[in-house]
Design goal:
Belongs to the protein kinase superfamily. Ser/Thr protein kinase family. A hairpin with a 5-residue loop joins strand 2 and strand 3. The radius of gyration is 33 Å and the shape is globular. The protein is an alpha+beta fold and about 850 residues long. It is about 20% helix and about 25% strand. The longest helix is centred in the middle third of the chain and has 49 residues.
Length: about 850
């Protein structure tokens, strides 16, 4: 929704520079903030401190948040807007966090001028986040208060403008935005912005109590707009709808400059983005753009036609200007009147009908009738002679659970109507109209003739229309497929033998589902932090619901060149693979620079998130661990041998093994995978990818990889599952790494002691010995000595198989110095949920 969705925002606020002092990102009890210091968010993007506006008395201070990394100070939030504090070097004001978790701004005498009015036990902290949100958090991480719910004149990415809020009494729990009173006066001005308190379906800008601007009533659209801030930066405006509430929010693409919506002191709603070249705020959009966009400008039954190059006022169908002279002179306040009176009588409608007006912003002053179908909504208006119009929307298109619908009816003058077009968020307005012919009467002969002609014409028209609609659907479907192939082809165009993906990989080779970018924006709550479940070098991972199914969405970073290669690998490889122990790629999305992959969602996340977490590892008893070992082995065997391709994963590790609801494993993250030809056994690369501790020595040191490289990684993973110890741990009982520790325990006949203490009550000694020996066979120094995965799977399933004795593992004795140097040159992952790590050799 933003204007035709409440689109635009902001005024440049020029403030005197104040040199900030270095500080961390939080305030704790007993350590107040004084005017000489600031609190700076972790990334350095925002600062919290005291400031004096331009041209104001320097002794008059306000507590605010501003952008910290641009040269032109721009305040985005002010605490004490109505109660500035006097500054004095001898007795300065302060902001403190009390032992009851309350933030309080006090003057020199201790008089409290502003407070969060929070009371909670425990040692809370006030943290300034990188989003610009000041949050008071309890020790357990619960948010007790946040500045985002108490906006000033600025809307930042991640902030929410509530349209519908069902908690409590069903009223809004957040405050309206309020403009500054003047460029140098942060006190609340006369203009405010927020949701309509009567309907909770639309938002307004008011001047005092008088409406100035109004959005279209929410009609189920989830994406309100996409604005291009630069050649590579986008702004996504979305309406997020849940069972509990509905709100407007927006987010930025990776690498976008600072962007904000601002309600200016003059009542304009602006969208601004920071231009680093000119060191100034550039206005991407403003509302109102035209006079006829102002609330009620075209009068009763008039509408603003915004589809014209120069929008102007027009009369609705069946109406004419109330005063033709004033109308032609550009004065539209008296609006329009009916050309012919309605014939509505005791029969509930007489000769009246309803004219469909598509692409309209529905008028104000409606009555919201709940729980009606489209037919029931039409009947509700038709049976009531005082109903002049109605509009229906299925809000479930916006993600509402339970099939929520919205029926709006009007019984008075139609005010503040606009023709926007369907693509701009408009909907069909059904207007009651007199059923008269051009002469103003309907003769009996004409009526009888119509009884004969009309059915014939109607049937013929329906047949023709149906044919046209079917042709349009087919055309659109073909065009959509061609467009999907074109987008995918741009990504796959680079695939070739150099990447190990073979030749001929074009978009036409794949029948692969595409998801609309708008649907992903809505499903991820506009890529909100709350939906984010992981992050890595290639981008971020979000949990979402698409078509009623929980999914994981990987949003690839545009800043990573490898991200495009990963996207290509995932689509080309996973789309061709089907195995119960490989994660399923469900769909993808390509929109401009945005590339996203949609996977099945794994509720138990990655193996390492449970295996190495002392509070969760008890969930993995030995039977579950043994099944995970066999499942990963089966999946790897499929990649190496049983699929129609030979695929080297190259980054097998605990973080890339996902667990479903039953703790069954699925190998994930094929971004660094390579495909071998039928007669190819190994390859060499100048770019080493992977994670230290899992990489075979010949690969890490010489760039040579093969299926035996994956076997080595599996051996390390197997030993981690048995012991519950990370391979990256440097000192294990005096040994430099997990593999050397396991090798020594096995040589001394103590392999049973390798078992994780948390599984001693559930493990079988024979299986611990089996898995330990298989693991040591997989990590042998010479790749040729390592078994194939077919032998590994057979050994794990058939415990009577006689196993050879393992030779000395890699990373031992003579290579220790080399391996330490190699480790220093490899970039290691610290995020267990995400993507592969990469480092040039």
């Amino acid at each position: 929704m933003a204007w035709s969705a409440v689109r635009y925002a902001a005024v440049i606020l020029l403030l005197l520079p104040v040199q900030p002092c270095a500080s961390d990102d939080r305030l704790i009890p007993g350590k107040p903030l004084f005017p000489s210091a600031t609190i700076v968010s972790n990334s350095g993007s925002f600062a919290l401190g005291f400031f004096s506006p331009t041209n104001s008395t320097p002794a008059k201070l306000y507590l605010g948040i501003w952008y910290n990394d641009i040269p032109r100070r721009t305040v985005v939030w002010v605490a004490n807007r109505e109660t500035p504090v006097t500054n004095s070097t001898s007795s300065p004001p302060s902001l403190s966090l009390t032992n009851t978790s309350n933030l309080a701004l006090s003057d020199a005498s201790g008089r409290v001028l502003w407070t969060t009015n929070v009371t909670a036990s425990g040692s809370a902290a006030a943290v300034l986040l990188d989003t610009g949100n000041l949050v008071v958090r309890s020790p357990n991480g619960t948010t007790l208060w946040q500045s985002f719910e108490h906006p000033a004149d600025t809307l930042l990415p991640g902030m929410k403008i509530w349209i519908k809020y069902n908690h409590g009494e069903g009223r809004l729990h957040s405050e309206r935005m309020a403009s500054w009173n003047a460029p140098d006066d942060p006190s609340p001005g006369s203009f405010t912005y927020g949701a309509d308190p009567d309907t909770l379906l639309q938002v307004f800008v008011w001047n005092g109590t008088r409406p100035v601007l109004r959005s279209a009533p929410w009609n189920g659209f989830t994406v309100d707009g996409q604005y291009q801030a630069s050649s590579s930066a986008y702004i996504y405006v979305a309406i997020v709808n849940t069972e509990e509430d509905t709100y407007l929010s927006y987010s930025l693409s990776d690498g976008a400059a600072h962007t904000r919506y601002v309600l200016t002191y003059s009542g304009e709603y602006q969208l601004q983005t920071w231009n680093g070249s000119s060191s100034a705020w550039a206005v991407l959009g403003r509302w109102p753009t035209w006079d006829c966009n102002l609330y009620g400008h075209c009068g009763p039954y008039g509408y603003c036609d915004s589809t014209m190059a120069a929008p102007t006022c027009r009369c609705l169908d069946g109406f004419e200007p109330a005063d033709a002279e004033e109308w032609s002179g550009g004065r539209f306040s008296r609006g329009c009147r009916r050309k012919e009176a309605l014939q509505c009588g005791s029969g509930g409608g007489g000769g009246d009908g309803f004219v469909a007006l598509p692409g309209m912003k529905a008028p104000d002053k409606f009555v919201h009738v709940r729980n009606r179908t489209a037919g029931e909504c039409a009947a509700e208006c038709a049976k009531n002679c005082s109903c002049v119009a109605y509009a229906y929307a299925d809000l479930s298109s916006g993600g509402t659970k339970g099939g929520m619908t919205r029926c709006l009816v009007w019984a008075g003058d139609l005010i503040d109507t606009e023709k926007m077009g369907d693509m701009a968020g408009g909907e069909t307005l059904y207007l009651r109209s007199a059923g008269l012919d051009d002469t103003g009467s309907r003769s009996r002969a004409k009526t009888n003739a119509m009884k004969i002609v009309l059915p014939t014409v109607l049937v013929t028209s329906i047949v023709i229309l149906a044919g046209i609609i079917l042709a349009c659907f087919k055309f659109q479907a073909r065009r959509r497929i061609r467009e999907d192939h074109r987008k995918l082809g741009l990504i796959l165009g680079g695939t070739g033998t150099s990447d190990g993906l073979g030749e001929g990989n074009t978009a036409q080779d794949f029948e692969f589902p595409f998801v609309r970018f708008e649907d992903i924006v809505a499903a991820t709550d506009n890529f909100s932090e709350a939906c984010k479940i992981g992050q890595g070098g290639f981008g971020k991972v979000y949990k979402a619901v698409l078509s009623g199914k929980e999914v994981a969405i990987k949003r690839l970073s545009k800043d990573s060149e490898q991200g495009t290669k990963e996207f290509r690998n995932e689509v080309v490889l996973i789309a061709r693979l089907q195995h119960r122990n490989l994660v399923r790629l469900l769909a993808c999305s390509v929109e401009g620079d945005e590339k996203m992959l949609v996977y099945e969602y794994m509720p138990n996340k990655s193996l390492d998130a449970t295996l190495f977490d002392n509070s969760r590892k008890m969930l993995l008893d030995w039977p579950k661990r043994f099944n995970i070992i066999k499942g990963v082995a089966s999946g790897l065997l499929y990649l190496h041998q049983d699929s129609r391709l030979t695929i080297i994963h190259r980054d097998l590790k605990a973080a890339n093994v996902l667990l479903d609801g039953e703790m069954k494993p699925k190998i994930a993250d094929f971004g660094m995978a390579r495909l071998f030809n039928d007669n190819q056994t190994k390859a060499n690369t100048h770019r080493v990818v992977g994670t230290y501790g899992y990489m075979a020595p010949e690969y890490a040191m010489e760039g040579v990889f093969s299926i035996k490289s994956d076997v080595y990684s599996f051996g390390v993973l197997l030993m981690e599952i048995v012991t519950g110890i990370r391979s990256s741990v440097d000192d294990i009982m005096g040994f430099p790494n997990l593999i050397i520790y396991a090798w020594n325990m096995w040589k001394e006949g103590k392999a049973e002691s390798l078992a994780d203490p948390s599984i001693k009550d559930t493990c079988l000694p024979d299986e611990i010995l089996l898995c330990s020996q298989v693991a040591l066979l997989c990590v042998q120094e010479n790749p040729d000595d390592r078994p194939h995965m077919s032998f590994v799977v057979l050994s794990l399933e058939n415990r009577s198989t006689t196993l050879p004795k393992p030779n000395q593992p890699a990373y031992f004795a003579q290579r220790s110095t080399e391996m330490q140097q190699m480790r220093d040159n490899i970039y290691n992952s610290v995020n267990s949920l995400t993507l592969t790590n990469i480092e040039a050799r």
